[in-house]
Amino acid sequence: MNNFVDIQPLELVRITKESSLSFVYFLDFDQTLVAVSEVSKEINRDNPDFFPIKPMEYDRFLVLSLGTGTAKSEGKYDADEAAKWGILGWLTSGHCTPLVDVSTQASGDMVDFHLCTVFQALKSEENYLRIQVYIMPTCFSIQPNYTNSLFGKKRMQGRRREVW
Amino acid sequence: MSLCMDQVKNNPSTDALLSDICIGTSAAPTYLPAHYFQTKDPSGNVREFNLIDGGVAANNPVCS
Predict the structure, then answer these.
(1) How confident is the model at residue B10, as a pLDDT?
(2) What angle do CA B43, B44, B45 make, to 5 degrees?
(3) Which residues in chain A touch residue B63, judged by CB atoms under 8 angstroms apart?
(4) A60-102: per-residue pLDDT in tens?
(5) CA distance B34 to B24
(6) H or E stretch at B51
(7) DSSP labels, A79-133
(8) pLDDT tens digits for B24-58?
(9) Buried b (16+ CB within 10 A) or exposed e, A55-70
(10) Which residues of chain B neighbour A102 with C-beta distances below 8 Å?
């Protein structure tokens, strides 16, 4: 039980799974952040599974964050176009919902940015790996169908390792 | 402010006019229109900015 390296990833997976039951799509991007916070909280509560670790000792954390695929950023909106949008324009434009696209992508980016910065600042960048796959160009707000057959047919257009 | 100056030094394409930055950061959806402008770095490369209010991405300034 005292072997931290064995316990930590399992603990992260367990917490992430639990979170996914109660979190809706909009908060999906925040799961890594929630997982890290939950582990820090357990350490603060003196959970015996994490006994020798300090809450901010990120070099003892091992975080693997797997994305389920995202639409490739196309830059399809520009400021001149957006400047003309009213409430309806922000909600529906070109068969997409720009406001939802913007906020979902931006909140995901902010979490990636925050985690990368924190892990780098604490000299633990080797302990955080984010993997995301670009599936196909479409609206961020429209969830792709992740059935095995469809997912298998999709050509993965690229993958990135989120390291700033 | 010194952080911003460091960023400009490291990445000259972020050396935008304060007026452009203010209009961009005020452009909350449906309140004020999105703002477009360009900057040029010393080697003549043009960088385009299409900006709306950053509050859409990071509503709490402490987190950002």
Answers:
(1) 86
(2) 100
(3) 110, 114
(4) 888 888 877 777 777 778 899 889 998 888 998 878 888 888 8
(5) 7
(6) strand B46-51
(7) HHHHTT--HHHHH-BTTB-HHHHHHHHHHHHHHHHHHHHHHHHTT-GGGEEEEEE
(8) 999 999 999 999 999 998 888 999 999 999 888 88
(9) eeebebbbbebebebb
(10) 52, 56-57
Dihedral sign, Cα of residue B59, residue A68, residue A22, residue A13:
negative
Judged by CB atoms closer than 8 Å, whether chains meet at B57 and A109 is answered as yes
Q: What is the DSSP letter of A140?
A: T
Q: Which residue has the tokens 């979190």?
A: A23
Rounded Cα–Cα distance for residues B43 and B13 (Å): 10
Contacts of A105 (CB under 8 A, 6+ apart): A70, A73, A140
Place of tokens 């003892």: A60
**Crossing angle between the packed helical segments A98-121 and A31-44, to the nearest 10 degrees:** 40
Among candidates A83, A107, A110 on the partner chain, residue whose Cβ is nearest the Cβ of B34: A83
Q: Which residue has 């409430």 as its token pair?
A: A87
Q: Which amino acid is located at A123 in the chain?
A: K
Return d(Cα A118, Cα A59) in angstroms, integer.
11
Of B36, B63, B64, the CB nearest to A79: B36
Flag if B35 and A86 touch (Cβ within 8 Å): no
